Amino acid sequence: MTFSERMKELFEHGWTISKDLAAKASEKAQDMSEKGIIKWDIKQLESQAQKLITRLGNKAYIAFTEQNQTTLERDSLEIRITLEEIATIKEQIEKKERELKNR
């Protein structure tokens, strides 16, 4: 095999390896991007849950201080709706976390 044939073979082999590495890097970047989106979604859902929990605490504070109530009823419309919204968000977070784990 001549020098130029060896160089051509090395070049072709190097090009194949470079293409394979580029494809793998692209796949990894896509996977990382998808994971990043899922993590972002989880953070957004956690933020929504935090706001709802704050709203629930605010309702309790107003009931106890301004309305002089001594108890809160879980079945009151405002409390029940807020608790249901929190439960829904909790389920969505758990679903996203499972999705992230399975990637």
What does this structure look like?
It is a single chain. Helices cover 85% and strands 0% of the residues. The chain is built from two helices and no strands. The protein has helices spanning 3-65, 77-101. Helix 1 (3-65) runs antiparallel to helix 2 (77-101). The protein starts with a helix and ends with a helix.
Secondary-structure map with pairings?
Elements: H1 3-65, H2 77-101
Distance between the termini: 47 Å
What's the overall geometry? rod-shaped
Secondary structure: number of strands: 0
Give the helix/strand class: mainly alpha
Number of helices: 2
The residue-averaged pLDDT reads 88
Largest sheet: none
The parts where pLDDT drops under 50 for at least 5 residues are: none
Q: How much helix, percentage-wise, in residues?
A: over 70%
Strand content: under 5%
Radius of gyration: 28 Å
Order of secondary-structure elements: HH
